[in-house]
Every structure is written in C-alpha cells, then in structure tokens.
Design goal:
By secondary structure, this protein is mainly β. It is 0% helix and 22% strand. It is built from no helices and ten strands. The protein has strands spanning 4-7, 10-12, 27-28, 31-32, 35-36, 39-40, 46-47, 50-51, 65-66, 83-84. The strands form five sheets. A two-stranded antiparallel ribbon has the order 1-2. Strands 3-8 form a two-stranded antiparallel sheet. The chain starts with a strand and ends in a 22-residue tail after the last strand. 1% of the residues are buried.
Length: 106
C-alpha cells in the first residue's frame, strides 16, 4: 500500500483486514513495516495483537455449570451450590476459584 502525504512531512496509510475465529485461535499478530524508496526500514517494524472474541461456547470456550437449571420462584430466596467448570474463550488461564458462597440477585 502507498502512503500519502497529508501534512508536510506526515504520511498516512490505511488498510482494512477482517480477522475471523478459527478453531481455538484467539490472537493474530499483524506486522507493519515502513519502506522508503523500496528499502525496508528495519527499525520501523510495529506489531499489534488482535484478539478475536466470540460467543462463550465458540472459539475454544465452553459453558459448563451443574446443575444447569435450578428453578426458583419469584420472591423466594434460596441457598444453593453449583460446580462451575466454564472455560471462557480467548482469555489467559485464570487462577483456581476457591469454593465459597455466591449470592445471585435477580
């Protein structure tokens, strides 16, 4: 792609890219390098990490909680325990969650 001079001494180039989630791939590492008169400026290389977010049960993630359904009547309180083995997609490994009391208010 060719950069255009927008202000004296300032050059701009814009490109578009659509990144898609494939299997368990969460990150892409695109590189940009400045080239002047056909010569690569080796010290100009820039890298960005692009994270692909998807629905919870896609791209390596899975929602897994037991019991899956626990009916509670409106206006009633309840104490319950459940096992949460959920693995969210595209996040670094999390610390182990220590069992404890959790309160849900709806």
């Amino acid at each position: 792609m060719v950069a255009t001079e927008t202000v004296a001494g300032t050059f701009t180039a814009v490109a578009g890219q659509t990144y898609v989630s494939l299997d368990d791939r969460c990150n892409y590492h695109p590189l940009a390098t400045l080239i002047v008169n056909g010569v690569v400026c080796t010290s100009s290389e820039q890298e960005q990490i692009v994270t692909i977010w998807d629905t919870d049960n896609e791209n390596g993630g899975r929602v897994e909680a037991e019991p899956n359904v626990y009916p509670i009547c409106l206006g009633n309180g309840v104490t319950m325990r459940f096992d949460d083995g959920t693995l969210f997609n595209c996040v670094p490994p999390q610390e182990e969650i220590i069992a404890g009391d959790v309160t849900f208010l709806h």
